[in-house]
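Researcher: Here's my situation. A collaborator sent me these components and asked whether they could plausibly form a single complex. I don't have experimental data yet, so a predicted model of the whole assembly would be a useful starting point for our discussion.
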Amino acid sequence: MNQASTTRSGRLRIREMTIDDLSEVFHIGEEIFTADLFPTLYRTWDEYEITTLFNSDSELCLVGEIDDRIVGFALGTTVEKHRSPWKYGYLVWLGVSPTVQKGRIGVRLFRDLKRRMREQGVRMIIIDTAANNQPALAFFRKQGFGNPQQHVYMTLNLTRKRKQGSRHDEPVA
Ligand SMILES: CC(C)(COP(=O)(O)OP(=O)(O)OC[C@H]1O[C@@H](n2cnc3c(N)ncnc32)[C@H](O)[C@@H]1OP(=O)(O)O)[C@@H](O)C(=O)NCCC(=O)NCCS
């Protein structure tokens, strides 16, 4: 189902992403998901992120467009845990073009995705973002997210030799 509404930036239409949108979405993501916002290799924006989610969950891959120009996207998936009756929704990537941010496009994308997830039986939605991504944290709090959990990333550099007798690996940037 497509939905249209007027934002400060014009007439916004939310619809499912199609194969023709992939490169536009990818390039918007390149502008937004920079290394300072997403410093870990665990969260790297690349073309496989889009194609994998598009292949597995195309109903949960949405774009927002104004005058036939894509201005934002939401890419999600669902997760079922072993021995848990609950189905989880995972909003993997949410992005709005920098020039139209804070124009309520993100909220429209999120609400449409939430509705679709609910229709698929999702009982809880999960997001993750960098701890210093204040705009995103403010955005998600406003949408009702809470209970933030800390997560620590560690690395082990296999190209460096361990010092004899050292119990610690050298830290890497
Ligand atoms: C996070 C993001 C998707 C929000 O989309 P948006 O269209 O700019 O946000 P909206 O206009 O829909 O904002 C809705 C609410 O979120 C909050 N919010 C959004 N941007 C904010 C900012 N920069 N600072 C503080 N609060 C903000 C506000 O409470 C806002 O409500 P208001 O309009 O009543 O003030 C967008 O800023 C973005 O693309 N950021 C970079 C990518 C990113 O971090 N994605 C999230 C992790 S994958």
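Model: Some features of this prediction you could bring to your collaborator: The chain has one domain: 3-142. The CA atoms of residues 18 and 58 lie 8 Å apart.
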